[in-house]
Amino acid sequence: MSVAAEFAKANEGYVKSFGEKASLALPPARKVAIITCMDARIDPAASLGLKEGDAHVIRNAGGRAQEALRSVIISQQLLGTREIVLFHHTDCGMLTFNDDGLRTKLKESVKADVRNAVTPAVDQLSFLPFSNLEQSIKEDVAYLKASPLLLEETKTKITGWVYDVYSGKVTQVA
Amino acid sequence: MSVAAEFAKANEGYVKSFGEKASLALPPARKVAIITCMDARIDPAASLGLKEGDAHVIRNAGGRAQEALRSVIISQQLLGTREIVLFHHTDCGMLTFNDDGLRTKLKESVKADVRNAVTPAVDQLSFLPFSNLEQSIKEDVAYLKASPLLLEETKTKITGWVYDVYSGKVTQVA
């Protein structure tokens, strides 16, 4: 069975107990957007006490702010969020590689007949790895605070945190 | 109190009951990457029966595949996932606007002294809205299946689903 089919099966129980969640509003009730990593060990709802309807949750490899900008603009302009909480985490995959290494690996993995064709595109891809966890958080918070495209009134409510995958604990660093 | 401070408070309980999660491995146990929207009403773990450690979860405004590509490449190349399950959902904010309208709104919201300076960048931003839910899912699945940068062996295990925010139910459409 595919994992997708397992999801559909597990979903049946969620639907049965859905209840009052059917009437939740589109705008996040707590007016906050969370940016965090796609890492499988992270459950934002469980670890931060979120209920359905509370917060936008933006996740990508590393929890990088640049890639989240489109989503954050939509979140602020159309859906009323006024705070941003960004997390990167210990033991992140982004600490384990650099762009050149992953580009080479990617080119080796594609079908031989398209390798030359994709090489220029692959050589321009940036995978946004980082070598220092705390520094990456400070850089991403600084990037958001400096962006002219985010609402000025929210700039004092942008914070950066480490999520520790070995304890589940969050600690503010920016 | 900021929402971030409320998160830190709620996190204390999670840390106390963290237990065996401290020894979870970095690669997702179920070898799957989920792509879904940042929408506040969606809790992937609760609605799909996910435990910490199971799956990469990539979330952005709309659950758009193009923006998820960097993360999916990292997921496949470095962390061993071999299936992709993509969800868009009913009542999505992406169904409510178009690029021109949001660009105008964004320009009006920035400080007057930087409005001219940011206009060229804003006019080039695409916010990836869509006007037909089912079509957007089919297009995103087709985009992933056509990408030469994703592993060929995974192409038969890319599926697209509607998540219904009024019932919690997931339904496959691609």
Overview of the molecule:
2 copies of one chain form a homodimer. Chain A is an alpha/beta fold. The first copy, chain A, has a domain at 29-97 and 129-172: Beta-carbonic Anhydrase, Chain A (3-Layer(aba) Sandwich), CATH 3.40.1050.10. Chain A has 6 helices and 5 strands. In chain A, strands 2-1-3-4-5 form a 5-stranded mixed sheet, with helices on one face. The first copy, chain A, starts with a helix and ends with a strand. At the A-B interface, helix 1, helix 2, strand 2, helix 3 and helix 4 of A face helix 1, helix 2, strand 2, helix 3 and helix 4 of B.
The largest β sheet of chain A comes out as:
5 strands, mixed
Strand content of chain A: 15-25%
- The total strand number of chain A stands at 5
Radius of gyration of chain A: 19 Å
> What is the overall number of helices of chain A?
6
Name the quaternary structure: homodimer
Q: Give the name of the CATH architecture of the domain at 29-97 and 129-172 in chain A.
A: 3-Layer(aba) Sandwich
The largest inter-chain interface, given as chain pair and residues per side, is: A-B, 92 and 92 residues
Q: In percent, how helical is the residue content of chain A?
A: 40-55%
CATH superfamily grouping of the domain at 29-97 and 129-172 in chain A: Carbonic anhydrase
Task: Using the coordinates above, name the CATH class of the domain at 29-97 and 129-172 in chain A.
Answer: Alpha Beta
Give the strand line-up of the largest sheet of chain A: 2-1-3-4-5
CATH fold-level assignment of the domain at 29-97 and 129-172 in chain A:
Beta-carbonic Anhydrase, Chain A
| Protein structure class of chain A | alpha/beta
Which residues of chain A sit in consecutive blocks of at least 5 with pLDDT less than 50? none
* Order of H and E elements of chain A: HEHEHEHHHEE
Tell me the overall shape of chain A.
globular
